[in-house]
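Continuing from the previous page...

OK, I double-checked the sequence for DUF779 domain-containing protein against my notes and this is the correct one:
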Amino acid sequence: MDPHSGRRVPAVSRIALTPAAARLVRRLRERHGPLMFHQSGGCCDGSSPMCYPLGEFRTGGSDVLLAELAVEGVPERVGFWMAAEQFELWRHTHLTVDVVPGRGRGFSLEAPEGVRFLIRSRLLTDAEARVLDRLDEGAG
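Thanks. Re-ran it with the corrected sequence; updated structure tokens here:
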């Protein structure tokens, strides 16, 4: 069950947070209010997820909402967006947002902390991919 909506949550997802990333999200939420992530793809820091105050990064038709993450201790969900072109390349990949030492070059909120968010990935299993493809078909 989702603690925010009370709805049943599918056991399969495209994205997750490590415990370290969830702790950092809670700290950033305390300082900056509601948050969002955007993953643009590309090289260098463009391949790192960027965390912004909710609404500071404008999304549109060229972006896909991968998930609205329920983070313990954060009162609202945290949207995770990806550029649609990047999503087409990564649609069969499970992403885990982690935190590593070092400072990124973007405007992501964690930069002053001396850490940066990082994506770790693995291919979805065939069963996971089938479930998510059915969910995508139902959303479209």
